[in-house]
Amino acid sequence: MSVFVQKFGGTSVGTTEKIKAVAEKIINFRQQGHEIVAVVSAMSGETNRLIALASEMQGQPEPREMDVLVSTGEQVTIALLCMALREKGYDARSYTGGQVRILTDNAHMKARIQDIDVANMRADLDAGRVVVVAGFQGVDERGNITTLGRGGSDTTGVALAAALDADECQIYTDVDGVYTTDPRVVDGARRLERITFEEMLEMASLGSKVLQIRAVEFAGKYNVPLRVLSAFEDGPGTLITTDEEDDSMEQPVVSGIAFNRDEAKISILGVPDTPGVASKVLAPIGDANVEIDVIVQNISADKTADLTFTVNRTDMQKAKGVLDTVAKELGAREVVADDNIAKISIVGVGMRSHAGVASKMFKTLAAENINIQMITTSEIKISVIIAEKYLELAVRALHSAFELNVEV
Ligand code: ASP
Ligand code: MG
Fold first, then answer.
1. Atom of ligand 1 nearest to the CA of 48
2. Residues of 139-167 as b/e, b for ≥16 C-beta within 10 angstroms?
3. Which atom of ligand 1 is found nearest the CA of 74?
4. Ligand 1 closest atom vs CA 154
5. Phi and psi for 282 in degrees, rounded to 5?
6. Which residues have a beta carbon within 5 Å of ligand 2, which is an ion?
7. CA–CA dist 286, 363 (Å, integer)
8. Which residue ranges does the chain devote to CATH 3.40.1160.10?
9. I need a surface site. Which of 40, 98, 184, 203 has the fewest CB within 10 A?
10. Among candidate residues 193, 182, 91, the one with its CA nearest the CA of residue 132
11. How do beta strands 226-230 and 238-241 pair?
12. pLDDT score, position 354
């Protein structure tokens, strides 16, 4: 007998029929003797609908009132799911975040969980009940309703699993697992049986939006095995877990390829090559609250330096404006901005123990005549910036070069 926390996202509870199907799924697990805590999101579209209502009322609603409003979506689904379970003869009890007592700080709309009282849930499980908890919400010390940020139900699921010392936190969603890359881009993309927390974080932060990043961090920190699986089809999904010591299974060198088109590139050309210049260029960007990702500096023969870095595409104009001023002060030659770029990363813990991964990546891109504009690496990731128009070609070429395609 195991304890499973099962989280069902908005699309899985989007209609009453779908909520009944979720109840069936839970009942299957109950029949095998497992104890189930279900965490549900609001019905799909509901949170957005509530946010739109708020904007009809006030330009900048109080965050406290926003939380009172948006937390109602999940209150609907917990009650409906319990009714569906009871209709089938299974005892179940619903809890809002406050009723569990998921204690958070008071940062409305982006609250952090501080403590979870498991006593009520534990008593219900012992009494043979299914426990159904509203995702995305908690309560602060003074009893104010708080929410955890968009997509926060994943975090609720993981946090409850950690607090209950559950055997697994299962995230049911509209995809059947984590893939080697986006199947819409590469036909041969394959579902991964397992992936490490570290790899998943790199994949997620690079744009594989299956799971809320915070939830993966939380799961890694508390070592909660996480499984992503389809709410609509049966299947094992993808298990996200720690890096196994067990060498019996050959680790792939590269587990997946992530990519995004979210960034833009900005270069400041011909700055004097003297100490302190990088900081003079980059500090004002930080002061303007613009996050910098990849940075490259090169020195020309004439003793001046070119500095290129990437920022979020939505920040490009702002960053360019700041740099135009900096360029005048430093006597730099020119500032150029380019948003026709894409970032591709190959990710894998196996890279730690294998040489030659980078050169294979670069060779593969060269064979396709794709120019690499910038490179950055970490222990388990190599990222390159290329022209956006070559993105799909590059992903396909790398996917087959690293033998990630479906075995036939
Ligand atoms: N309903 C909330 C949202 O849409 C939380 C969640 O679904 O995870 O952000
Ligand atoms: Mg979600």
1. 4
2. bbeeebbbbbeebbbbbbbbbbbbbbebb
3. 1
4. 8
5. -85, -30
6. 9, 151
7. 35
8. 3-174
9. 184
10. 91
11. antiparallel
12. 86
196-238 tens-digit pLDDT: 999 999 887 665 567 888 899 999 999 999 999 999 899 999 9
CB–CB of 161/169 below 8 Å? Answer: yes
pTM exceeds 0.70 for this model: yes
Ligand 1 centroid, distance to 48 Cα (angstroms) = 9
Q: Which two tokens stand for residue 49?
A: 């609908």
Check residue 19 and give its pLDDT: 98
Nearest CA-CA partner of 195 in 396, 382, 345, 349: 349
Class of domain 257-401: alpha beta
Tell me how far the alpha carbon of residue 219 lies from the centroid of ligand 2, in angstroms.
16
Ligand at shortest distance from the CA of 41: 1
Task: Quote the CA–CA distance of 202 and 138 in Å, as a whole number.
Answer: 28
Show the beta-strand stretches assigned E in 285-405.
Answer: 292-299, 304-312, 334-338, 341-347, 374-378, 381-387
Give 11-29 pLDDT, tens digit per residue.
Answer: 999 999 999 999 999 999 9
Strand-by-strand arrangement of the 145-147 sheet = 113-116, 102-104, 137-139, 145-147
pLDDT at site 300: 82
pLDDT digits (tens, 9 = 90+) for 152-203: 999 999 999 999 999 999 999 888 999 999 988 999 999 999 999 999 998 8
Give the ligand whose atoms come closest to the C-alpha of residue 136: 1
Q: What are phi and psi of 24, to 5 degrees?
A: -60, -45
Q: How many helices (DSSP H) and strands (DSSP E) are in the chain?
A: 13, 20
Q: Are 349 and 253 in contact (CB under 8 A)?
A: no
| Residue nearest atom 5 in ligand 1 by C-alpha distance | 151
Residues of the chain with pLDDT under 70: 205-209, 244-251, 408
CA 193 vs CA 173, 241, 364, 380, 404: distances in Å: 16, 11, 26, 19, 13
Any idea which fold 3-174 has? Carbamate kinase (3.40.1160)
What number does the ligand 1 atom closest to the CA of 136 have?
5
Ligand 1 binding pocket, CB closer than 6 Å: 9-10, 41-42, 47, 73, 135-136, 150-154
